[in-house]
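Subject: sequence -> structure tokens, single chain

Hey, anyone have a minute? Need the predicted structure for the following. Not urgent.
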Amino acid sequence: VQLQASGGGLVQAGGSLRLSCTGSGRTFSSHAVGWFRQGPGEEREFVASITWSGSSSQYADSVKGRFTISRDNTKNMVYLQMNSLKPKDTAVYFCAASRAYTPGDSVLLYDYWGQGTLVTVSS
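Reply:
Had a minute. Here:
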């Protein structure tokens, strides 16, 4: 499974962005997918995850009510809709795939990682 995140950019506080994670490989649709982010000088942190079927999702407290994760297995795509963005959301965002049903926020349970996409939120 290979992953590629895209859709990052520069946005003003209060604005929105939609990140996309493109997966390749026949088994991508059978993997849970998570989004993580890493700000300057910070450790990688969990943002959101979704099960392979899309029936269940999980969010970090810091993004609940503002971010929405979704997927379209017919297109091998996972999305992260980010609304009401704040300067503290500035980070490189990564998508990752896991063979576990609900890997949640555990970095160790993710088997495949894509290159990140930079999101910059200006105040």
